[in-house]
Amino acid sequence: MIKTVLDANLFISAILKPDSNPAKILELVKNKEVILFVSASILLEIRNALLYPKLQKLHQHDAEQIDFLLKEFTTFAEFTSEKVKIKAIKEDPADNKYLECAIEGKVDYIVSGDHHLKDLKNYHGILILAPAEFIKLFQ
Predict the structure, then answer these.
(1) For the chain, which residues score pLDDT lower than 50?
(2) Which DSSP letter does residue 95 get?
(3) How many distinct structural domains can be found in the chain?
């Protein structure tokens, strides 16, 4: 089974665009074709981003609905304990949480549109792919 970490923007894109590649990836997770790994820090970033007024206008969910959506996502996810600490991305240290989660979860892929992560391409054997590249694995 393929194990992966998804960056926060993918969750947001999936909510805003139900026919997008990120939404298709979350369907793979729900269908148990992919094992999703997350951490509390990743979930907090997703929640905070979804609460930005600009994004709330687009998705029309209040805090309670956002919490419900996140709880639903996490029923399909494996949690990491955040014991691993990495300082590989100096330009945006907050992105290191995805590498930490991936290393701790021993995942195969990180799926991201963030150039700080994508520029790495590979981190200790973990491939870093854009959503479209990851979807191609299943076609």
Answers:
(1) none
(2) G
(3) 1
